[in-house]
Amino acid sequence: MARFAVGAQLWPQHTTIEQLTDAWRRAEEVGVDSLWTWDHFFPITGDPDGPNFEGWSLLAAKAVVTSRPRIGVLVTSAAYRNPNLLADMARTIDHLSGGRVVLALGAGWAQRDYVEYGYGFPDARTRLDHLATTLETVRDRLHRLNPPSKGDLPIMVGGGGEQVTLRLVAAHADWWNAFGPAERYARKSGILDERCREIGRDPADVVRTALLQPHEIDDVGAFLDAGARHVIVSLAPPYDLEPVERLIALAAAG
Description:
Shape: globular
Helix content: 40-55%
Number of strands: 9
Structural class: alpha/beta
Strand order of the largest sheet: 1-2-3-5-6-7-8-9
Distance between the termini: 5 Å
Number of helices: 9
Radius of gyration: 17 Å
Largest sheet: 8 strands, parallel, barrel
């Protein structure tokens, strides 16, 4: 089995700040390489009006509560924040964290988030066009901020759309994220290879991450065979870290 990094995405819904901060600390103690939240304004499972916390505010807190893992919002909807502001937020939190932020972006999909927070809900192509513009603007702003980011601040693009999203990954992303099942991930990873070659980019330049549910951990070998080198498991509260510990043990065994 290929060597790989291990991450955990801890859901910011149906929970408390105390539960989250405790889980961040426990996850760092067991050895995760990355810690993630998500970018939704309302719960996406369970009671739709239950407790929920905003992702970028949590990321700033995570930057100072933890000291070692990479941190990010998996993934940020490009439509929710001015891209120049978003770049500045990411750079600032990168300094708070000592250079550990990954700026992960996607086109967004949750209609309630868009509508209730006043963004309308444009069609998928319009959301993707906005993502493309955001990627360009964010990269430009990051190059102009003073001081610059503390770390390398890689840009991730999440999604598997074959005609648009994977072209954006090839053109703009340092990291890519998609989810399973493993056969689907493998197909998307292969298409990403093609999109990179079309523009003269080495496919190996893109760090491939995979978001797994706990029941998919037994399939991790298939994700690795498809090119994943950073495997992130998604966990609901109360944040039982046993799936993370299993992944870390598999990673250590090589």
